Amino acid sequence: MVGAAVTTKTKWALRLVALLYLALLLIVPVGLIFWRTFQHGFSPFWHSITTHEALHALRVTLEVAITATVLNTVFGITASLLIVRHAFPGKRLLNALIDLPLAVSPVVAGLALILIYGRLTPIGGWLGHQGVNVIFALPGMVIATVFVSLPLVVRELVPVLEEIGTEQEQAAWTLGASAPQTFRRITLPAIRWALAYGIVLALARSLGEFGAVAVVSGKVVGQTQTLTLYVEQQYQNFDKTGAYAVSVMLAMIAIVTLIAMTLFRPKER
Amino acid sequence: MAIDVSHIDKRFGDFVALDDVTVEIADGSLTALLGPSGGGKSTLLRVIAGLEQPDSGTVTINGNDATKLPPQRRNVGFVFQHYAAFKHMSVFRNVAFGLEIRKRPKREIKQRVQELLELVHLEAFADRLPSQLSGGQRQRMALARALAVQPNVLLLDEPFGALDAQVRKELRVWLRRLHDEVHVTTVFVTHDQEEAMDVADEIVVMAGGRIEQIGSPDELYERPANDFVMSFLGPVTRLNGRLVRPHDLELLASAAPGAVEASVVRVVRLGFEVRVELLVNGSDVWVQVTRDSSERLELHSGSTVYVRASETAIRPAVPSIATPAASG
What we know:
heterodimer; A: 269 residues; mainly alpha; MetI-like fold; 0% strand; B: 328 residues; five-stranded antiparallel β-sheet; 9 helices
């Protein structure tokens, strides 16, 4: 029975370590933010998140995140079909490039975008003449957000596409279904949960993005300010209540996303 | 001819999958493509269906050149080894798929699917998902799905390959009966010679991307074109360097014209049959005899007998010395 006692002890020790780690890094900080936000009741919170600036930041955040997620969904489906179903020169390169955003710091990505689309560069200058401003405007923020959330949909879809194989699609072809019909009736239903999970991940990443957007947006208050940028600004202006309140809003969005993710995931198994 | 395949070549990189393959498949026939794995039979079937593009050659289906047609426009039914069931659709929707794509009226679809489900004995399972069916039931569903669109030809790629032995035999008999009822030109791929002999009217033997012989099961068994076909279609042994069926060898107690001396190595009783292993001039030969003749000759290991091929022994039309598959 000594052996059993040791195993039980080890088990408890491991649990304690894991819980402590989570507590220090996650539960305590997030809990403190919630506590600070609501310590004087609900109305300061409500007041802080309904200011004109905060609401505008929310709108900008949603616009940027949703546009980027739609773009990455379309790109993600196309790229994963390409990677799984087709052999072509440069496939390994494409595969590696898709993971690049995970390795590159978002700030660096933002700077790189300025180097391409900034007003003093050929591309940026030309676009400016056409009346399209990329940097310090929504298009740049969308591109930056697309960049950081690029791999998420692809990495969810590739293993599922590999697993389902091509026989169902081929069977559909022999039954007369065209390529678009086959995609809509056979492929899409087969990948739907993985796709939903990938979209939720990409959306969550897009909503919380700070670094790349901070660089390309110019942080123009009331114009290109997202929620994360708003939090930073309020904090630096010593409006802690405002910063905490909007943080709580972001945290709540994250919790909803988390719930959505756990809803999608088990159905996949 | 329902299917006319002419001078088809197909390579995958350096691998030659089909090498100048020409074959005609008669209207309403049930044909087996038989051969070892990697012999090109599945590739040939996929070329007929349009799922693979040949490098050269033509495919004609019901008199129309189909070589350049996509699979959608060839009107073939295709059944896959692993069923390729549409996992998210009920059995009914699976079978209805081709008809829905063709935008047939709802009532017609319903009636046709009912008929097909009765034909494959799945009428009680219409609302189930494929995952709730056994392997044999899934394959019957796949067959009904392929038949729903009234295909010109029905192509089956190792249709029983993923099933266990018992179900396999049942489905075999059932496919034969189904074909006698429906009469659609059917081609199926198998590596099991017994399956091919049991089910098909016509067998196309393939190996190494080439056609070795085409004929009825009896023709192939009795008049094999070469050593490969002979050894693939039944048991063989080699006497004096020539291939012969073990039951076509005679054992004699004393020397006789054409018989060679042999010493018995082992006598194995397998019920009614007796398998006698001999050593003839230093090489192994085995003979299949009845229990009676084994007892009459008093065979036991170490005894000496005389062996020769019977007058009616089957020989390959083109004898060759040593083919790789002959030992198998």
